[in-house]
Amino acid sequence: MRDDHLAQLLHSLDHIAEPDAVFADDLFARLSSTAAARARGRSRTPFLLLAATLMLVALGGGMALGSGLIKLPGLSREPLPAPSASATATSLPSASVQATVSAAVNSTPSPIPAATLASDQIVHSTVDGLEVRRSTGIDGERLGSMAAGMEAFVVGGPREVDGYNWYKLSGLGLPPSSGCVSAEQTDPFECPVWGGWVAAGDKDGTPWLEPSSPDCPPSPMNLEDLGPGRSDLQRLACYGNQTITFRGWWPKLPQDAGLGGLCEVSDPTPRWLVCQNINYNLLDPSPSGDGLGLLRISINPATGVTMPERGQWVEVTAHLDDPAAEQCYDAGANYPPDVDPGERVLDCRGQLAVESVKVVDGIY
Amino acid sequence: MRSAPATWGSPMPSLTRLFEDQLAFRDWYDRTLPRVYRYLLSRCSGDTALAEELTQQTFVEAVRRADRFDGRSDVVTWLCAIARNKLVDHCRRSGRDQRRHDQLVVLDGGGDWHQSETRDAVERALDRLPGDQRLALIFRYLDQMHVRDVAGALGRSESATESLLSRAREGFRRAYGAPTDA
């Protein structure tokens, strides 16, 4: 039995049954109640914040803060980090993660030689339990730990603090259909959406982080090679801002096309980068795709690039790391509230900005 | 805030906005529910009760995590990714209790599931596999996921997943009664 026969057999499992109407209605009632409660919560949040602020002022919070007796999240007196080097972790680690400290960074600090890791590089941990912290230094809040071999993207650094060289790392992100929903599952490091500062090596020079050698298919290539199994950051590490060419299927809109969504970002923020999906500019590795391997492309209206009729193979020339990505720093309205500006910029840097498109007969 | 042009497959950069409009939310639900339910039913041995349970978990999670949906993929893709997580969680739980797994297999066959003899035979062969092998085959050959994504979904390394897939293919071929490649 060949693989394609196996796939054909398994596709016989595809089902056309409709969900039971009673079940559907019961579930909807439950969901709409939850959704309405969430919507009410969202609308109340600004007023709650305002009330909290006024209360602090009334209580003489300024004096307390000045004396260091009160420490409020988000009101740190430390200098603000650069956009690409700010803490991005979105959840607190579980107890089991906090307890994982085999490569603890807690001995007497002393200077070490400068590390040689570069930004936009994929690195991996050489040890189990390498601490990831919200800020640099051995007193930084522990967010989780990296297992040996676990890979990450270097966002920034080094910063020498407490005698160690610290790098800002980001999890490699979610490849399409990875199955991870958020970083707030049992262990934040189960899903590759995380960010924090990591010491690159011991004081004796033993490296805790080493560069990886990602598999980067050369351009030109097919979308199957560029896309669906790689995350945005893996592509960014491979190609930087160089121009790449790839072929993919420009699919027709299905009959049940929805009404679309909203982009909350106003000019001059680069909506075309932030709301990449708004026009459904998604390429498919093949015409028979089931929607699980789609890769989005972003078109800057200023380039005048237009897509051809759907339902054809296309060859796309594009680049990552468009300069406009830096403006995504201000695009907070379209991101979840706990996604910090640096993470927004990184997200935009990972988008494929189209330079040209042409219709072709098929893939390479 | 601006309106967006008509788009395909209900991309919602701000899914939480739907919650403020009951009609829009109902429309979204009506369009996505059947696809998620079918996705799960096809992967749950046709067990409608289990498919409903996992569908419910999927949608509850989606609503709870709506602000995590960034519009970068089709919303059904996103929902199916959540559903896949629920399926993996379910198999892990049931894998710790083989008796429960056996019960689930016995439950197989409700509704119109047995319309196809091929489907029936495929399902019987899959049921004879351990849960992780069964999921690996489904994710690789039915969902057409890359090995590295299957590895991510199952929490294994890529090489371990290759080995798992190899054992799963062989086990399926044996259970299905097909000749081996050798």
Describe the structure concisely.
Chain A contains eight helices and 14 strands. Chain A is an alpha+beta fold and 364 residues long. In chain A, a hairpin with an 8-residue loop joins strand 2 (130-133) and strand 3.
Give the CA-CA distance, first to last residue of chain A. Answer: 28 Å
Please outline the major beta sheet of chain B.
none
Rg of chain A, alpha carbons = 23 Å
Q: Mean pLDDT of chain A, nearest integer?
A: 71
| Record field, number of beta strands of chain A | 14
Low-confidence blocks of residues of chain A: 43-114, 175-188
Helix content of chain B: 55-70%
- The proportion of residues in beta strands of chain A is 15-25%
- Radius of gyration of chain B, in Å, reads 18 Å
Sketch the major β-sheet of chain A.
Answer: 5 strands, antiparallel
Oligomerization state: heterodimer
Q: Could you tell me which chain pair has the largest interface and how many residues each side has? A: A-B, 74 and 93 residues
Derived from helix and strand composition plus strand pairing, the structural class of chain A reads: alpha+beta
Contiguous helical run count of chain A: 8
Low-confidence stretches of chain B: 1-13, 96-115
- Outline type of chain B: globular
Q: Give the integer mean of the pLDDT values of chain B.
A: 71
Portion of residues in beta strands of chain B equals under 5%
Helix content of chain A: 10-25%
